[in-house]
Specification:
Blueprint: H1 2-23, E1 31-32, E2 37-40, E3 43-46, E4 53-54, E5 57-58, H2 62-100, E6 142-156, E7 166-182, E8 189-206, E9 212-228, E10 231-247, E11 255-270, E12 272-275, E13 278-293, E14 305-318, E15 320-322, E16 325-341, E17 364-376, E18 379-390, E19 393-405
Length: 406
């Protein structure tokens, strides 16, 4: 009898719940009930007896999730490009200073650059004009290797009801080897060309959802910089071979698909000395990334997409001695805009579907502090940070690098 009464009570509660649910379904946008359950108010109710109430699965719309894959893939490659550029900035500083001043930049090798030691103070940005005889500068190549570890954290907030808040954590390592040639066409120009390899992984989580994404894989590319006097320009090309794993925490089968990032970035800058140990350097550039997805993309509402970023800003630098170590802090401030940010969601191209928000046309800011340390004997290190901010975005990162110049 007790079992019968319990069954009857549960049955009555189920009917009431179903009726209430059908009249007052209040699931938040982007939320749904798992298979085998129905909407009951703001919760999900099982269709069995006894009734079990559970929270809905809020994954955001599938179009918003597939759209976030593109933005994360692009951010991952741009982070790699940014750190390659930071390394090249340090190398350009030492080469330019060797031609523009009496002594080389902190961690440059005086003998290797063809400058004899003098009785003058070793100032990384000394303003005394000096040019060594062209014959004293070796043509090269001189070789170097470098390696770094990096971490980055970014939060993108929803900007429409079709979007979903997500948080991305990226970790990785990259390194390379490069060669330097000097005096190619004049006594004050140089060319650096190198090879870079990387491994990076990004994990993305969504507010109110057990679903998560992981984008990971190796990358390989080429980079270079050319300088002539105060002017310099750099270029890098890179391909990342990624795997995207989608984890549904047991709510449905997990999914995995390949993705490839093809990217190129370039910058130009002009260094202006502002004192005996300081400079300001206007800079401008671009980066382009094409994200292509492998077989099975359509089943995950994914399609290939391209992103073009334009940026401009200033870099400031100075130099100081700490015992036998030369420290060279710099600060770069940028404004950037993804002038092209194609949607990677198939749903965005479906007539009548909700417009999936992107980061196209949103002017954002970036602040990159860095400190180079010269320990002598060709060894140097760099610690740099990155802070990004703007509409629906906040984030930051940290990189530590070690370089050996022969």
């Amino acid at each position: 009898m007790r079992g019968y009464k319990g069954f009857f009570a549960s049955f009555v509660f189920l009917v009431v719940s179903l009726l209430a649910g059908s009249a007052h379904a209040q699931l938040a946008a982007g939320c749904s009930c798992p298979a085998g359950t129905i909407v009951s108010g703001s919760q999900c109710a099982s269709t069995g007896v006894p009734i079990v109430l559970s929270a809905p699965v809020c994954t955001g719309s599938s179009s918003a999730i597939s759209q976030s894959v593109r933005s994360v893939a692009v951010s991952q490659q741009q982070l790699s490009f940014s750190n390659i550029q930071t390394m090249l900035e340090g190398r350009r500083d030492q080469l330019q200073n060797a031609h523009l001043t009496a002594t080389p930049l902190g961690y440059a090798n005086e003998e290797a650059l063809g400058y004899a030691a003098t009785g003058r103070s070793r100032n990384a940005f000394a303003s005394i004009p000096f040019k060594a005889p062209a014959s004293a500068i070796p043509a090269g190549p001189s070789w170097a290797s470098w390696a770094e570890g990096l971490g980055d954290w970014r939060r993108d907030s929803a900007v429409t009801a079709a979007d979903s808040n997500h948080f991305a954590q990226t970790y990785g390592a990259q390194g390379g080897v490069d060669a330097t040639w000097q005096s190619l066409s004049s006594a004050n120009d140089a060319l650096v060309v190198g090879l870079v390899a990387s491994w990076m992984t990004s994990r993305v989580t969504y507010d109110g959802s057990p679903v998560s994404l992981q984008l990971k894989g190796p990358g390989v590319g080429l980079y270079g910089t050319y300088l002539r006097g105060n002017f310099s320009t750099d270029l890098a090309v890179k391909t990342d071979f990624l795997t995207m794993d989608e984890d549904f925490s047991g709510l449905s089968p997990n999914a995995s698909i390949s993705a490839t990032n093809f990217g190129v970035t370039g910058n130009a800058q002009y260094k202006i000395m502002t004192g005996t140990a300081s400079f300001v350097e206007p800079t401008g550039g671009f980066s382009f990334t094409r994200t292509d997805f492998g077989g099975g993309a359509a089943a995950l509402d994914l399609k290939d997409a391209s992103t073009l970023r334009l940026q401009a800003g200033l870099r400031f630098g100075t130099s100081t001695k700490i015992g036998d170590t030369t420290a060279e802090p710099t600060l770069k401030v940028l404004a950037y805009d993804n002038v092209v940010a194609e949607g990677s969601s198939i749903a965005a191209d479906t007539p009548g579907a909700a417009i999936v928000p992107t980061d196209q046309g949103k002017v954002r800011g970036e602040v990159d502090p860095a400190v180079n340390f010269d320990f002598g004997h060709g060894y140097s290190s760099n610690i740099s940070g990155q802070v990004v901010f703007g509409e629906a975005l906040v984030g930051g990162g940290l990189t530590a690098q070690l370089r050996k110049q022969w």
